[in-house]
Amino acid sequence: MHSPLSTLHFHKYHALGNDYLVIDEDQLTQALTPALVQRICDRHRGAGSDGILLAGAMQNDVINLRIYNPDGSEAEKSGNGLRIFSRYLWDVKRAGDAPFFVQTAGGRVNCQVFENGRQVRVEMGQVSFKCQDIPVALPNVTEVLQQLLHIDDLTLTFSAATIGNPHCVIFVDQFDQLDLAAKNICNIHTLGSRIEHHPLFPRRTNVQFAKVLGRNRLSIDIWERGAGYTLASGSSSCAAAAVAHRLGYCDADLVVVMPGGELHIEISPDNHIRMTGPVTHVGEIWLAAEALTVFSQ
User: Fold this and answer.
1) Can you give the three-state secondary structure of 2-13, one letter per residue?
2) Considering the domain 8-118+280-292 in this protein, what is its CATH number?
3) Predicted structure pTM score
């Protein structure tokens, strides 16, 4: 059975190679089901993206945002997604140069677009390392810092945090102590999915393999929950930076380096995070009805 959707109009942006499609909810004639989201995000049969940002109505001067991963699941928060969404609102004149609020499932954030749309700053909220907040299934643990993660015969040391969505941070320096066979499987591509779906994380998790480059510089590789390997991630940058700062590896003002580029992260004494980075408008896409056809199972 074919879906009754007609042509859909999206704006496409990328933030350091992490690309999203933005659409207003009033354009939809039916809900964004997981199957439909997968079809739209498909890089061979659809528009191709790391997710969809659905713009909702404004309520009490706050604009609502829903974030869809390419597997059809919903994310509570996305740093790159929020920067892209902010730039979109600025482009279509729903926001100006002054700061404004966006409501996500992971909390309300304050955003500001500047440098004629090329840079966006987001107050991402407060990071928590608490086991029940993230959540992580570790009994008798208050904060998830330097805990053990077992995958078959491999034991890794990890820390976890939430900034509205869950993150698992592993510092790759520890791989220097592993034997050669173990080193060969210790990368984000081979372990990312297994950590994302590990029983310790009841809501799954984003994964970052981090390397300290200096007091003000941190490098990460990213496995994004519901999306897989990702060139860049704003929330991952915030979480990894917060963990590195909490463990004493980095200062509170630092740059996070990713394969897609760099983000500036600032951490306040009470663990509130400010993220600043670029956004690029790729173009506009009209998806034909036949490309949106989803067959029932």
Assistant:
1) CCCCCCEEEEEE
2) 3.10.310.10
3) 0.89
Task: Give me the pLDDT at residue 297, please.
Answer: 39
Q: Per CATH, the architecture of 147-276 is what?
A: Roll (3.10)
Joined together, the tokens standing for residue 146 give 């330097």
Cβ atoms of residues 170 and 207 within 8 Å: yes
* End-to-end CA separation in angstroms for the chain: 9
* Domains of the chain by residue range: 8-118+280-292, 147-276
Q: Which amino acid is at 260?
A: G
Fold equal for 8-118+280-292 and 147-276 = yes
**Do residues 203 and 106 make contact, with C-beta atoms less than 8 angstroms apart?**
no
Nearest to 169 by CA among 137, 199, 208: 208
pLDDT per residue as tens digits for the range 24-42: 998 887 788 999 999 999 9
Residue 166 in tokens: 């869950």
How far lies 257's CA from each of 17, 158, 220, 262, in Å? 13, 20, 6, 5
pLDDT digits (tens, 9 = 90+) for 205-246: 999 999 999 999 999 999 999 999 999 999 999 999 999 999
**Residue-level pLDDT at 188:** 87
CB-based contact 237:265 (threshold 8 Å): yes
CB-based contacts of 297, cutoff 8 Å, min separation 6: none
